[in-house]
Specification:
Layout (H helix, E strand, L loop, with lengths): L3 H10 L38 H13 L4 E5 L2 H11 L6 E4 L5 H14 L2 E4 L5 H5 L6 E7 L11 H10 L3 E5 L4 H4 L9 E5 L13 E5 L1 H14 L5 H11 L2 H20 L4 E5 L9 H7 L6 E6 L5 H6 L16 E3 L11 H6 L6 E5 L5 H15 L1
Parallel strand pairs: 2-3, 2-4, 4-5, 5-6
Antiparallel strand pairs: 1-7, 6-7, 8-9, 9-11, 10-11
The structure holds pyridoxal-5'-phosphate.
Length: 382
């Protein structure tokens, strides 16, 4: 990765607070909700997103994404909803990539009609699929790459070129890639969103979100966010800062394991299909090579029809059949039965989600142990 050495140092040190009182090695934590009056527009207060720990963490994540500024939220959905609603108003139209995180899709479908905001989903992931949806009142494009759960790759440069040409903004949910593997701002994307519950937190014990972008755009989001109130508690801000110190090491290990697992599964007779952007036969492998530093820790695969996917998941031993992703422990789930259960059959079919599909979130365990768990499970259930 270009600038890898700098990135490693930033993971550890960017945005850290200095303990002037005792000279401690880590950022002190300031739990105060009330601060001495100063002459600035907004005095420090947790819901104003401007307490010392919140500001430090926002700086840290912004520096990892090569952004001017950032805001930390109490969940990924809080970050996503605030970013979208602050950039849209009654009568506006926005284009969404069809492959979308389930919660985001649900938010748009349930809430946007109440505000009179129009939206379209694309038919595919090519620039032309986005261009085809542009109307006179279109204000922005929202993408997710690699996508959930089939790891589709959207070309960041060409989407941002299209948007600039049409004078509209672009937002990306960069959760699956993490800032280690992809920095969309370098490719001209305006706003980067993260569910910090995933790779940034990385230990399946923190719920948080982040928005990164130019100072101007972050100010716009902030003006709504201070009214809606979605700030993150100081304690969790501090824990998230601590987690990010190991972000590079964790994600690097997850990238390596995921590639090995994808290559192993690709040659197994009980697997009919593997989705991983690091495989040569992935349809968008070349775009992934161009815009990603690593191919990520997420992959999906289809079991052959003879294998019952629920039975497969429940017989795994080391790999946990849990809902979330990106932790240092490997997990697997059936999108059909969990993350994408609320979609209609048509929506699922369009996104390539069937009952044989398994989404795999690679942890940092030994590859041999993970491989043996998969092989043992197949032995037990067949
Ligand atoms: C989990 C997730 C979200 C939502 O984040 P929360 O922290 O659960 O609110 C959004 N996008 C993607 C891609 C996710 O995986």
């Amino acid at each position: 990765m270009k600038g890898e050495e700098k990135f490693k140092t930033k993971c550890v040190h960017a945005g850290e607070l200095v303990d002037k009182q005792y000279g401690g090695a880590t950022s002190p934590i300031f739990m105060s909700t009330s601060y001495k009056f100063t002459d600035v527009e907004f005095n420090q207060y947790p819901r104003y997103f401007n307490t010392p720990n919140q500001i430090g963490l926002a700086k840290k994540i912004a520096s990892l994404e090569a952004a001017e500024a950032g805001l930390i939220f109490s969940s990924g959905m809080s970050a996503i909803s605030n970013a979208l609603l602050s950039h849209l108003k009654y009568g506006d139209h926005v284009i969404f990539q069809n492959d979308l995180y389930g919660g985001t899709r649900n938010f748009i479908k349930k809430e946007f009609p109440k505000y009179g905001i129009e939206f379209s989903f694309t038919n595919g992931i090519l620039v032309i699929d986005f261009e085809n949806e542009i109307k006179a009142n279109t204000k922005g494009i929202y993408i997710e790459t690699p996508s959930n759960p089939t790891l589709k790759i959207v070309d960041l440069s060409s989407i941002s070129e299209l948007a600039k040409d049409k004078n509209i903004w672009t937002m990306i949910d960069n959760t699956f890639a993490s800032p280690v593997n992809q920095n969309p701002i370098k490719y001209g994307i305006d706003i980067v969103l993260h569910s910090a519950t995933k790779y940034l937190g990385g230990h399946s014990d923190i719920c948080a979100g982040a928005v990164l972008g130019s100072k101007k755009r972050i100010k716009k989001i902030y003006n709504l966010a201070k009214n809606l109130g979605g700030s993150l508690s100081e304690m969790t801000v501090w824990l998230l800062e601590r987690s990010i110190k190991t972000l590079f090491l964790r994600v690097q290990a997850q990238n390596e394991n995921a590639l090995k697992i994808a290559e192993f599964l690709d040659n197994e007779s009980w697997i009919s299909k593997v989705y991983y952007p690091g495989l040569n036969h992935h349809p968008n492998h070349n775009i992934a090579v161009k815009q990603m530093n690593g191919f990520g820790g997420m992959l999906s695969f289809e079991l052959v029809p003879e294998i019952d996917s629920k039975k497969f998941l429940l017989n795994l031993n080391l790999i946990k059949p849990t809902m979330s992703l990106a932790g240092i422990e490997s997990t697997a789930l059936s999108p059909r039965l969990t993350s994408h259960a609320l979609l209609t059959d048509d929506e699922r079919e369009q996104q390539g989600i069937n009952s044989q599909l398994i989404r795999f979130s690679t942890g940092i365990e030994s590859f041999d142990d993970l491989k043996n768990d998969l092989l043992n499970t197949i032995r037990i259930i067949s």
